[in-house]
Structures are given as C-alpha cells and as structure tokens.
C-alpha cells in the first residue's frame, strides 16, 4: 500500500450507514451562517453514486414546491452529521437520471420491502 492509499484510507468515514441508488435518505448537514452553526436536513432520493474512497459522492434529488432540487454530497465530508435511510428502493440501474423528466407518481421508486 503506497502513501496516498494510506492517507485516503485514514480520511474515510466509517460511522455512516450504507445505502444504494434508489434509497430515500435524510441527510443532516452543518450549515455555518456567520458565527452561528445549525443542522439542516435534506431528504430525497439517491439518483447517483460516483467515485471511490475519499472522493466518493452521491446525488440526492427531491421535488419541493413543484421545483426539482438536487444536491451533491461528498460522503466523507465533515459537514455531514448523520444519514438516515428512510426507505430502501429497488432499482435496476446505477444512475437514475431519468427521474429528472418525471414528476409526481411517475417519479416514485418501488420499495424493496414490497416483494
């Protein structure tokens, strides 16, 4: 193992729960406004996971007030307080970019528990 692999492995977080594409998550992240710090929740569906090791990211999508919103989070970010998996989704693709064109019931993902 070379030096870069050792540094990357030491920086990766192990305290977060595992999840996959299609799952509905609630991500609690720290927001710093001036001197105050607060925790803000963002709930949505994971439409993509990308990278590996220290560079791994995931994209969350939700629709709020009729407008689609996406956020890209680095998994190993110190700003992420915790990740809650609200429900597991059953999908057959690695990237769910087709959800960008859909809204309402058409944008739903089948639950894994409903087998």
Spans of at least 5 consecutive residues whose pLDDT stays below 50 are none
Shape: globular
Radius of gyration: 16 Å
Order of helices and strands: HEEEEE
Overall pLDDT, averaged?
91
Number of contiguous helices: 1
Largest sheet: 5 strands, antiparallel
Strand content: 35-45%
**What distance separates the N and C termini?**
42 Å
Task: Describe the strand arrangement of the main beta sheet, using strand numbers.
Answer: 4-3-2-1-5
Number of strands: 5
Task: Give the helix proportion (percent range).
Answer: under 10%
Q: From the helix content, strand content and strand pairing, which structural class follows?
A: mainly beta
């Amino acid at each position: 193992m070379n030096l870069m692999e050792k540094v990357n492995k030491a920086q990766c977080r192990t305290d977060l729960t595992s999840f996959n594409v299609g799952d509905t998550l609630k991500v609690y992240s720290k927001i710093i406004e001036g001197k105050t710090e607060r925790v803000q929740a963002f709930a949505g569906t994971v439409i993509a996971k990308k990278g590996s090791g220290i560079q791994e990211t995931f994209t969350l999508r939700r629709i709020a007030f009729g407008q689609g919103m996406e956020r890209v989070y680095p998994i190993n970010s110190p700003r992420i307080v915790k990740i809650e998996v609200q429900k597991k989704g059953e999908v057959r693709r690695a990237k769910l970019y087709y959800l960008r064109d859909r809204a309402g019931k058409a944008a739903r993902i089948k639950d894994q528990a409903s087998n």
